[in-house]
Hints:
Helices cover 45% and strands 21% of the residues. The protein is an alpha/beta fold. Helix 1 links the parallel strand 1 and strand 2 (39-43). The longest helix has 24 residues, at 218-241. It is globular.
Amino acid sequence: MEKIKMTNPIVEMDGDEMTRVLWQMIKDELICPYVELNTEYYDLGLQNRDATGDRVTHEAGEAIKKWHVGVKCATITPNAQRVEEYGLHEMWKSPNGTIRSILDGTVFRAPIMVSRIKPVVKTWKKPITIARHAYGDIYRNVEYRVERPGKAELVFTADSGEELFRETVHDFAGPGVIQGVHNRDASIVSFARACFEYALSVGQDLWFSTKDTISKQYDQTFKILFQKVFDEEYAARFEEAGLKYFYTLIDDAVARVIRSEGGFVWACKNYDGDVMSDMVSTAFGSLAMMTSVLVSPDGNFEYEAAHGTVTRHWYRYRESGRMTSTNPVATIFAWSGALRKRGELDGSGELCAFADRLESATLSAIEDGIMTGDLAALAEGGGIRSVDSAEFIAEIASRLG
Ligand code: NAP
Ligand code: MG
């Protein structure tokens, strides 16, 4: 059989620990036998980030801008313990954060559904994708702990020196707390564009929610800008695709999401997205079945698994030399997502079809009861065989062949 050719490369970002082991196995056994894999390789493993002074992460981000499609393995975000464990020169920043700031992207998290794992919410039949705004709000706040009586004010001074706004936040008679948060129109607009583009690309409705009834300037700004971007740039395309843009209050959205069948994209402000993505992914079953894609407003796509490097499994694997039962599904779907997007952008139906086959081979193994331990613990129905990662990947390979 002739291998599928690729016109343009995918930016491949290798990573750490157990997911680095899975990464190699997925390439060797599931992709390279069928595709003449064309990647621009960046080793984001912690040792190489340290050796290059983290230059490699910046180069990988720039490469995604050039080639428009990337796939990333999970990586360690170092803390004090990792600095000691790996003898690092510095406590390097989160690679995901670095790449996100280079691409100015929005992260979409979508569950991979299989019929044997039932969502906790019984009505959910289709995936719910959470789009989280990744700028501002409480993540870039200014806080002050008030210890003595006094007045807290919100003041805005224009660059000209003119004071345009001053209002009392609170007259404190005793101890308390205050907080200042901000956002930028430009960031909200690019978030909105990324959400509308993504919804069109997956053919799903877009929901957006804030608390504009209470926050009459702050949240209201989000609501107005989303509506403006929709009306001016997307209304016609949504109509043509038979899709809807639906705005509602965050508390109403939560109630509707729980009663829904799923099958839509839910755009959330930064904090709402932080909380709701953990709730939704847990309710769908497992973090190991959650994919994540970073989409930038100018059309760059970076695919990865939502989980980390699975350190506990890595230590076990390294100590015993025995394969663990670590779930490779989200990492396989990161690859299939990147291959499909590459195929779409390059007009290669063959590559898109291979991505589909890879996903169905993976899902059919699970439907037939062959799965890693984390899923076996949750799955319903008979004939379940809990296997290690190598056996699971071999099973997928045999279904692909
Ligand atoms: P984690 O790697 O997601 O693992 C947490 C636990 O979840 C595991 O110990 C395992 O539970 C379970 N799990 C996660 N993925 C699994 C899979 N594919 N198959 C089976 N079980 C899975 O999170 P962490 O231990 O908090 O973080 C480890 C490292 O990953 C850290 O250094 C962190 O910086 C990094 N991280 C990277 C990313 C990223 O690159 N996007 C994201 C998050 C974390 P059991 O042990 O109970 O089996
Ligand atoms: Mg969270």
